[in-house]
Sequence to fold (287 residues):
Amino acid sequence: MFPAVGIIVVIIMVFGGFIVGGGSIGVVLHALPLEMLIIGGAALGATIAGNSMRELKALGGGFAKVFKGARYTKQDFLDTIFLVSRLMKMLRTDGPVAVEPHIEDPKASPIFAEYPRLLKDDTLVHLICDTLRLVVVSSGTLDPHAVEEVMDNAIKTHHHEAIRPANTLQTLADALPALGIVAAVLGVVKTMSSIDQPPAILGEMIGSALVGTFLGVLLAYGFVGPFANRARQVIEADAAIYHVVKQIVIASLHGHPLPLVIEAARSGIAHTNQPAFADVFDGMRGR
Fold:
């Protein structure tokens, strides 16, 4: 919702201010289609040239994140604490044999089935299952610091992949002002080829050429740049859930008491998604 509101505010304030200041919006509207064709076409071509098909598809997902917002809610973070804590408690009290069926086939696990939203995130499920599988096959002899290093590497690799759409959008935003200049220069070239025309016509042609520079800067700093920033915010907000998993697993492997493990994970969540202390511990009593 907020991105759409922001777009409307930018359009109204920029063009409204221009009109109120006595500008002729007709000149801008007349030049807009051609300038957008040049700038937009060049931006599209440069984006295609600079990215693989996989990254182009991810870019579409990045645009979607701008408008959809973060994937995970406070309840999802709470469910993650419950899920991982239950598995670690089972590993500690019942042993690896009890945990193994759940991590080998999480879709058939009655524990994972209680959290269908989490089960849809393959990265989250693999992080949990692969880490616990590593602990199980090592018969509990792994150094927690070594496990933490493996988890950090997995989270880092995922984040590197996930953040690419935001980086691509930022690269596009950085290029748009220059592409606007390209459109403006072409307009000036067109104007110079008609230098024998009356001043009124030349003035309109120069004005149309300058619309290219205006559009390039507006698109870069009014739309695409903010989209890149918003996509980065959403991606980083969603990535926090993986750190919750890591915190619980590593603290449990260090042998810390369960209340301390859970509180360490809860307190590391951003305030917008941080469950209340009572919600976590009341929920754990019934599990």
Residues 1-287 form one domain. The radius of gyration is 27 Å.
